[in-house]
Design brief:
By secondary structure, the protein is an all-alpha fold. It has helices spanning 3-38, 42-50, 54-57, 59-71, 75-88, 93-105, 109-126, 128-151, 155-168, 173-185, 189-202, 207-219, 223-236, 241-253, 257-270, 275-287, 291-304, 309-321, 325-335, 342-355, 359-372, 377-389, 393-407, 410-424, 426-436, 444-456, 460-488, 505-526, 529-543, 547-559, 563-576, 581-593, 597-610, 615-627, 631-644, 649-661, 665-673. The N and C termini lie far apart (150 Å).
Length: 674
């Protein structure tokens, strides 16, 4: 061997060792980068990549870089590095896979689908693992698109995507379940049932699919099949109460009340201490309108669980619903012995007594509850309202004062001020109203209270300013309260009638309306023309030509002598808001002024229908009918009404007056003796 050949062999040997060492070094670097990515340390991975030549890692260099940027949430950097890698390695499937995933993350689903389909096709023979991953990812994308379509209520499109999911992932339950859900929303119940059966073949214990299948069978009125499935479920798990309750409901739905009652009795014997069973049976009776049946179930529940005070509350509420007041109150008396139920017991008892028109006893109950829980906001509040209803103003002022000291709420301060004003006069209440003028969103009633104070001091400029502000604020309150009440009662835009609702918001709405009307009268009588015009203009701009605002406009025009324009506004007001009594009253007054008695009669009748206890309505009708010399016609109208309701004192009094005016003294005397 020559020296030259020996030197060449020696060089090749050292070169091979160097190459192997470099490969080992590169492999270690790749392993280090992959490790830091696996534990979500993209910053360290990027540092390692910055110290590594791209050629050393090949396509992995770009794959690692893209993954690191994605992990940091830097989509633009990730996309830039990935595009660079694909220019260098255009046929690399793993880089294409990353590009598809990048499309997914950026929401470009159509591009992602196209690329994943290519990956699935290209990798079928060369890379089985990648082929499988692409198929699974396609399934997940189809599922995502299906869910998105379903969220938009596009169920035909959703069903199409979920069908693709089941094609790609036939052994996963989610695809079949979602496909069933889409067909259910399309009212394709048989198809939905078929898909649920496929889902339950994959996992017979899948709870959602089982419940959904029962609901579908119920929709299809296949009670026999439901009972058969439930019997199988009961046999599998005899201690589970849920399928037994479902079986009971199925018997009822199938029109087998006797079988249902028999089965219910068996359940109560088998599960005597299970509250859920009694609750379910009570609810079934309630849905069927069987109050007595519900009452019996709750009584049995109490026998089974005698020390549960919640049952007493249920019994009380049920007796109340059945108008059995005394029984309801007796249950509350027992409930009051449990400390944790004292407040609700005395609150409900007082509320029932108020509704039963016994406010004096209600006040006693609220006070009794307050001896045990003196800081109770609910009891104090109800006590204050009850005292105001009975016009016990000094007591009410003391109650609201105490409550305000507990809550520091403006509403309670306002009620304290109003009770104080009624009990001791406006001067005593003024410091409280003055305090309210400093808060944000000053209540309407506080502004009216301040106006009353300034009026007593003969400071009419200040009083008028407060009245204008109060009317503006009051109308905003009306708008807000009306919208709130309408939304709660499912009647958008409805005007709710006065009612004794527990939270008194309908009553508060009416009270605010009354204040606004009263304030506008003061504005016309005591303040300047400019104040009245400014207020009407504001109301029209803020609320449009609503019925009440058109009434205000009519009243302003009537007050300043423009009767014709006032009548036009009133006609528009009544067409928009026929239940507004003040509009009919003003219309009657204008027709009387113009001696248009027949029109006045019609207006008085409309006003009387809305205000049946109003003296003004009775007097207006008698006056208008006298002017047309047809008072006997009015008597013929009133006599049947009186015969149907002889306890109506006002109708009796004004019918007698009409008879006297007609000279029918004997008939009038007979009515007086009845």
């Amino acid at each position: 061997m020559t020296a030259v050949n020996f030197n060449r062999m020696k060089y090749s040997f050292f070169l091979l060792i160097f190459i192997l060492a470099c490969m080992e070094s590169y492999a270690q670097t790749a392993a280090d980068i992959e490790y830091h990515l696996s534990i979500e340390e993209p910053g360290i991975a990027i540092e390692l990549l910055q110290r590594t030549d791209a050629d050393q890692l090949g396509s992995d260099y770009y794959r690692f870089y893209t993954a690191a940027w994605l992990m940091k949430g830097e989509l633009i950097e990730a996309q830039s590095k990935l595009e660079e890698g694909l220019r260098t390695y255009p046929e690399n499937l793993y880089l294409k896979q990353m590009k598809a995933e990048l499309y997914v993350q950026s929401g470009a689903m159509n591009q992602a689908l196209e690329l994943y389909r290519d990956l699935e096709r290209l990798s079928e023979r060369t890379d089985p693992e990648l082929h499988k991953q692409a198929g699974e990812r396609l399934g997940r994308i189809f599922e995502s698109l299906g869910r998105e379509a379903a969220s938009r209520n596009q169920f035909t499109e959703a069903a199409r995507w979920f069908r693709k999911v089941t094609n790609y992932r036939p052994d996963e339950i989610a695809g079949w379940y979602n496909r069933a859900l889409a067909h259910y929303n399309l009212q394709q119940y048989e198809d939905a049932l078929d898909h649920l059966e496929r889902a339950l073949m994959i996992n017979p214990q899948h709870e959602q699919s089982r419940e959904f299948r029962l609901a579908l069978l119920s929709q299809l009125q296949r009670s026999e099949k439901i009972i058969e499935l439930l019997d199988e479920e009961i046999e599998e798990n005899p201690k589970n109460l849920t399928p037994r309750l479902s079986r009971l409901r199925a018997l009822l739905a199938d029109g087998q009340p006797e079988e249902a009652q028999k089965y219910a009795d068996e359940l109560m014997d088998k599960f005597p201490d299970e509250p859920k069973l009694y609750d379910e049976l009570a609810a079934i009776n309630r849905r069927m309108g069987h109050s007595e049946g519900e009452l019996n179930i709750i009584r049995k529940k109490r026998q089974a669980i005698p020390n549960d005070p919640n049952i007493l509350l249920e019994l009380s509420e049920l007796h109340e619903m059945m108008n059995e007041w005394e029984k309801a109150i007796a249950k509350l008396d027992t409930l009051a012995k449990y400390n944790e139920f004292t407040e609700i017991a005395y609150t409900n008892k007082g509320r029932m007594l108020e509704l039963h028109e016994n406010p004096e006893r209600a006040i006693e109950e609220y006070k009794r509850g307050l001896t045990i829980i003196p800081e109770s906001k609910t009891l104090n509040r109800r006590l204050g309202w009850a005292q105001m209803d009975l016009e016990l103003w000094e007591d009410a002022a003391e109650t609201w004062k105490k409550l305000y000291q507990i809550t520091e709420q403006t509403d309670d301060l306002l009620l304290w001020a109003e009770a104080e004003e009624q009990a001791f006069g406006i001067e005593k209440a003024w410091p409280l109203y003055s305090q309210m003028l400093q808060v944000e969103n000053v209540p309407t009633r506080a502004l009216f209270g301040s106006a009353r104070y300034f009026a007593t001091k003969n400071e009419l400029d200040k009083a008028c300013t407060q009245k204008v502000d109060a009317i503006h604020t009051g109308y905003n309150e009306i708008k807000h309260q009306r919208a709130q009440l309408a939304q709660e009662m499912g009647q958008p835009g409805a005007l709710l009638q006065k009612s004794r609702d527990i939270d008194r918001r309908p009553e508060r709405l009416q009270a605010t309306r009354s204040l606004v009307f009263g304030g506008f009268d003061f504005l016309l009588e005591q303040c300047s023309v400019q104040d009245a015009e400014r207020t009407v203009k504001y109301l029209v701009e803020e609320f449009g030509n609503q019925g009440e605002i058109l009434y205000f406009s009519a009243k302003k025009k009537f007050f300043f002598g423009n009767d014709e324009a006032a009548l036009k506004d009133l006609e528009s007001s009544i067409s928009r808001m026929p239940e507004l009594p003040e509009a009919h009253l003003l219309q009657a007054r204008i027709h009387e002024k113009e001696e248009n008695w027949r029109e006045a009669r019609q207006a008085w009748h409309r006003y009387h229908s809305l205000k049946p206890d109003s003296d003004r309505a009775y007097q207006g009708l008698i006056s208008a009918y006298r002017q047309t010399e047809e008072l006997d016609e009015l008597v013929r109208r009133w006599q049947p009404q009186y015969m149907a309701n002889p306890d109506n004192e006002k109708l009796r009094r004004y019918l007698r007056e009409a008879l006297y005016r007609l000279g029918m003294y004997d008939e009038a005397a007979k009515i007086g003796q009845q």
